[in-house]
Amino acid sequence: MTDLSAFPIATRWPASHPDRIQLYSFPTPNGVKVSIALEELGLPYEAHAVNIGKDESWTPEFLSLNPNGKIPAMIDPDGPGGKPIGLFESGAILLYLTDKTGRLIPADPARRYETIQWVFFQMASIGPMFGQVGFFHKFAGREIADKRPLARYRDESRRLIGVLETRLTGRNWIMDDDYTIADISMLGWVRNLIGFYEARELVGFDDFSHVAAWLERGLARPAVQRGLNIPARR
User: Fold this and answer.
1) Integer Cα distance of 66 and 31 in angstroms
2) How does pLDDT run across 118-134, given as a tens digit for each residue?
3) Among candidate residues 22, 21, 2, the one with its CA nearest the CA of residue 12
4) What class has domain 109-224?
């Protein structure tokens, strides 16, 4: 049997199937990226709910694997050389999974790097900006009288959606006909922006028909629908 005792996180969230990939996450836009990828790839895995509403990502056990204190984190008991590997940061995990399987990313080196740049675009731009819109539009930030921060993040989010709109003009997916981790990295964020964050009208989302069609195509994928609710909230 696979021994995960070297990972303190496995003591707080014990594995029922230690031979499978262990996912420690919560169904947020960052969290569901990895569950969607795992569902798309069909890799055996076990999902553990790390309840961010109860600050479980700041416990010593979680921080031992992810010092940044953010979901998700992952252990692959069958890592490089057959040895277990622990990983944090969703973008790095997505790249690891593509390297492990040779799927969800083009084989051609130039197109591979093009895909990676769009994953980084999500991590450096889409995620942080949309998250700030959520804070200032829906959560505690909405009580701040000075609306300049909200306007700044609204305008920047709209600009970023415009970048996606230009890229998706004449394309089914970010990488033309290839559905990749670039799409997976962004689907949950765009969905949250107009759904959970209730910012559809705020950012003028209906002006971006190509992004809307892309989102609809992505959400229609069975693996995406499953991954959006993994791990189940508790």
Assistant:
1) 13
2) 999 999 999 999 999 99
3) 22
4) mainly alpha
